[in-house]
Design goal:
Elements: E1 4-5, H1 8-30, E2 35-40, H2 45-61, E3 64-69, H3 75-88, E4 94-97, H4 107-112, H5 125-133, H6 137-142, H7 149-160, E5 169-173, H8 180-189, E6 193-197, H9 204-209, E7 213-216, E8 234-237, E9 241-243, E10 246-248, H10 253-257, E11 262-263, H11 270-290
Parallel strand pairs: 1-11, 2-3, 2-4, 5-6, 5-7, 7-8, 8-11
Antiparallel strand pairs: 9-10
């Protein structure tokens, strides 16, 4: 079996194209399109690439997007002040903070500085809590919060496969607050039976071998071996790791593609869809400001 490669760029184009009528409506109603503010604070390579992708995609989709760099040396207090200013700025509809944060920063303090209504990545504790309180996918969709955007992108790609999720064995490798844990919750809300693996899990390979759905989000290059993948599985790889061969995912792609039914490439898989989700959330945030719920 040779896996079907899930083209994240194509999925992202479909999502972005669907936003265009709403962007036009918002522009007609208030004179300006939705605007995304991207707060930058790091020179880390993958964050820089992701920033460029967001700004380019926003422009192509018809949104305004602007990077707001923090003043060098101001640390957490500088980020918090900038986020507070952007939260009060009536021209801004959505705010994202480039990650990873500096080790000196308290993520909760930083994320709390974003107005929940403008938190289009779903990192503010209010949005995060609402997401975890939702028991079903319908409740997640009906919530006023924004699910973590990388997780929403992974789910969108999984749904592209057309596979039934209900009752399937799903394994999530990685338990970060931004991707792994919320991914496990979202899959559970879709009625999958979920195992969450992490650095202390004994015999990760055994868990992966049973999985119909594999979500990789641990941040270790090619950690998940192709031989572990169950024939017919769907593999969604959110890893983005720098190697001698360029950017690679958390999954050994070539080996996994021999067994899986569907697999996402790195780059070109989860990343473009995550950007499209951020843009979609920005449009939604702008619409809510026009029509308070």
């Amino acid at each position: 079996m040779k896996a079907i490669i899930l083209d994240g760029k194509a999925v992202a184009r479909t999502i972005r194209a669907a936003l265009e009528p709403e962007i036009s409506n918002i522009r007609a109603a208030r004179g300006t399109p939705p605007k995304l503010a991207v707060v930058t604070h790091t020179a880390e390579e993958s964050a820089g690439a992701y920033l460029r992708a967001k700004l380019k995609a926003a422009q192509e989709t018809g949104l305004q997007a602007q990077a707001f760099p923090c003043v060098a040396g101001t640390g957490q207090s500088g980020i918090v002040r900038l986020l507070a200013q952007l939260s009060e700025d009536p021209s801004i509809d959505g705010i994202v903070v480039e990650q990873p944060l500096d080790e000196s920063c308290d993520p909760v303090a930083v994320f709390c500085a974003i107005a929940p209504a403008k938190d289009v990545e779903g990192v503010h504790p209010l949005n995060y809590g609402r997401f975890f309180l939702a028991k079903t996918a319908a409740e997640i969709a009906a919530s006023d919060s924004f699910p973590p955007c990388t997780v929403a992108a992974m789910i969108a790609l999984l749904e592209e496969t057309g596979l039934q999720i209900k009752g399937k064995q799903a394994v999530v490798i990685g338990r970060s607050e931004i991707v792994g844990r919320p991914a496990a919750h979202y899959l559970s809300a879709l009625d999958a039976t979920v195992t969450l693996c992490h650095s202390r899990t004994l015999d990760v390979a055994a868990h992966v071998r049973r999985a119909d759905i594999v979500f990789a989000c641990l941040g270790r290059a090619r950690f998940i071996r192709g031989a572990w993948i169950k024939p017919g599985a769907a593999v969604i790889d959110a890893g983005m790791n720098r190697s001698e061969d360029g950017w690679v995912g958390d999954v050994e792609f070539d080996g996994a593609a021999e067994s899986a039914a569907f697999i996402t490439p790195v780059p070109g898989g989860v990343g473009p869809v995550t950007t499209a989700v951020v843009l979609g959330n920005t449009v939604l945030a702008a619409r809510r400001r026009l029509k308070p719920r």
